[in-house]
Design a protein that fits this description.
By secondary structure, the protein is an alpha/beta fold. It folds into two domains: 173 residues, 3-Layer(aba) Sandwich (Alpha/beta knot), CATH 3.40.1280; 76 residues, Orthogonal Bundle (Trp Operon Repressor, Chain A), CATH 1.10.1270. It has ten helices and nine strands. The strands form three sheets. It has a five-stranded parallel sheet, sandwiched between helices. A two-stranded antiparallel ribbon has the order 3-4. The protein has a two-stranded antiparallel ribbon with strand order 8-9. Strand 8 and strand 9 form a beta hairpin. Helix 1 packs parallel to helix 6, helix 4 crosses helix 6 and helix 8 crosses helix 9. The longest helix has 19 residues.
Length: 259
Amino acid sequence: MKYTVLSLFPEIIDAYFASSIMAKAVSRGIVEYRPVNIRDFALDKHKTCDDAPYGGGAGMLMLPEPLGRALESAGARQRFVESAGAGSAGRSSGRVIYLSPGGRPFTQDVAVELSREAELILLCGRYEGIDQRIIDTYVDDEISVGDYVLSSGEVAALALIDATYRLVDRVITAESLEEESFSGGLLEYPQYTRPEIYDTLRVPELLLSGHHENIRRWRLRKRVEKTLALRPDLIRRGEEIGLFDGETRKLIQELGGEG
C-alpha cells in the first residue's frame, strides 16, 4: 500500500509515518509514503496557495493551479479532456481522495474497501476548501470522517490512513482484526489484563477459567449488550441485511433487541 499525501503542512503527516506500528510497516516495505508539499507548486515567489472566493463570503479557498500541478506530480491525471470527442484522459495508478466534510461518510466498510487499493492519493484541504474545478477534474472520491468541520484536512487524512493501513496484510495479525468493533456488525467486547484485582474491581471469573467455549459465548453476549446500549443503529442495520447468525439473533431478542 502506498500513501501519497498532498498538504500545505506535510510535517504533520511525516511525524505519524515515523512512529509506532506505522514506522515498522514502512521499514518492512509493507507501506510506502510520499509527502507532497502543495506550496512547492505555487506560481509566485510568495508561495501563495489561497485566494478569496468568487461571489464573496468569508474565508479563503485553495487555488486550483498549485493543486493541479501537485496532483499531476503525484501521478494523478485529468478525468476528462475538453476537446472534440472528449474521453478519458487516463487515470493515475492511485485513487485520488479529497478529505471533505461534504464527502461520503467514512466507515469501517469503506476502510476495508480502501485498504485493497495499491495507492491512495490523499488531498488535504485547508481554509474554506478547494476550488470545485480541481474536484471535477482530478478527484475520484470525497470522504468525510464525521459530521463535523475540521480546520485541518491533515487530521482527517490521518484518521483514514490509520483505519486502512492496519487492514493491509502483514501489518498486524489477522486474529487481532477478527472481533474488533464493527466486525460482524457488533462493537467489541470488554477486555481485561493484569492484575486480577484493580482497586476493588475483579476480572470476570469466567475469563480466568480457561474454558474457551464459555469465554467465546460470554464475549459474544457482551458484544451484543454493548452494541444494543451504545449503537442500536448497528443492530438494526445488521438485521436488515441479514448479517447475524442464529446465535446472535437469539441473544439480541433475549437482551431486548428487535431480533
